[in-house]
Amino acid sequence: MGEMSAQTFFITTAIDYTNAPPHIGHAYEKVLADVIARWHRERGRSVFFLTGVDQHGQKVQQSAEKAGVAPAEFARDITAKFKALWQKLGIAYDGWAETTDPRHIAAVQDVLQQLHDQGDLYKARHSGHYSVRQEQFLTDKDRNAQGEFGPEWGEVVFIEEENWYFRLSKYRPWLAEHIAAHPDFVFPSFRGNELANAVAKEAGDLCISRPKSRLGWGIELPFDRDFVTYVWFDALMNYATFAGYRATNGGQLPDFQQLWPCDAHVIGKDILIPAHGIYWPIMLKAAGVEVMPRLLVHGWWNLGGAKVSKSAGNVVDPDALADRYGADGLRYYLMRDIATGQDADFNEERLKARYNADLANDLGNLVNRTVSMARRYREGTLAGAPSDQSEDAIALQALAADAAVRFDAAMQNYQVHTALDAVWELIAAANGFVESSAPWKLAKDPALSGRLDEVLVVLVEAARLAAALVHPVMPRAADELLGQLGFAGNLANSWGAVAAGHCVGEAKPVFPRLETDVAA
Ligand code: MSP
Questions:
Q1: What's the predicted TM-score (pTM) here?
Q2: Could you give the angle at the alpha carbon of 73 between the alpha carbons of 67 and 75, nearest 5°?
Q3: Ligand 1 contact via 218 beta carbon (within 6 Å)
């Protein structure tokens, strides 16, 4: 990762289409961004986390038609579903983008007018194959080995029409140079290489309009009222407009100069080329924004090796999964079972197994037994750490310090699963320490009372640190764990919180074991 902007860590995500309700892939992306945002906040950095919904375009218009309602109403209903899910999953965003917002529309039109005035747009007649699903004209390059437009393009129709085009080709050499000069433009780097290859190959300009006769649901071109703006051009601008770009709203939106650029611009691998890797930087450059965002490209959750389709979306409805495993149980699985940048296969049995093994058995049990023993043997009040520590206590403390360092190093590199691995090593070591020190035996021998004091302090320390480290991933559960340990709100990522006289709270299972089979 490169340098961050001066004060505020600006993280944003792809905005989700409101043509269908959210599925597990959408949930993953928001949780990933939220975890990164929370981690930065917890380390004392100021953060602005932007997310939202992509409400215009043909897909939304078509879904609305099918449902027999106006596009605005349809988009509003799906938007409400996304918002409710984000609240349920604890997604703590600071800015919310809706592309039907008049502030966004005004700023997009202002950019379009500028591009028009500076000669970057031109009108031309074009005939060709058009993918309704992808909302774009296709070329022969898009044909498969059989010479056909494959099923990924959905319905393909032949149309001839006049439209407005954006001179992408004029800026292509600049983009190639930018990519070469900024190895951290795209994370992970293999995606940056893919982008560089695509930029070297791809030619042609971008059609940025749709005739109103065909599509009414979009932002009108300010200089030609018979057209609306192509949905991607409109949607991509959200990252700037909701960061205050060209805002005339008297301060309701952030200060763009202060916030820009995005330090981590979270998108899925499917929308890097061409949208975020080519159109978006060129749009910024043409509009006069010189500093480019940094793209964080994640992989996909698949289902049995295949793409999560709309119908499969029901099987992996994140709302229902959060009901079954808790929002934090779901967040944990989504962060633990995928490497950022790679794909993974969603499997509810694994989610359940991880919940039981990692959360109920390992973390939950560590805190539960620690608090219970502190209450049973010391009525909940601890002695401070002894001046002369035992060897095994010193070893556990060293392991904990190492885990905390590795956690932050992995998070800095967006590798949340590796960060969690480090915490689970600490948890395993702490549970091992319970077994080897056997407090229940120490409690029987008054001569070993000092050792029992030490063991309890060490366990509370280790459990508190583990709970504090996992807080960005499982904020609500971690808050409960910390409360039970008597350390509500103490998110310090270091050892040494326990002072003499520290009182623990009550022990209550935070991750009750799931005994029943997963409902089919
Ligand atoms: N509306 C566009 C983005 C416009 S941004 C200016 C869009 N929307 S989407 O709803 O189709 O996808 C939103 C995000 O969810 C994308 O980053 C996409 O990669 C991500 N995911 C959609 N399905 C996914 C999985 N199965 N797994 C992980 N993320 C996936 O694209």
A1: 0.95
A2: 85
A3: no
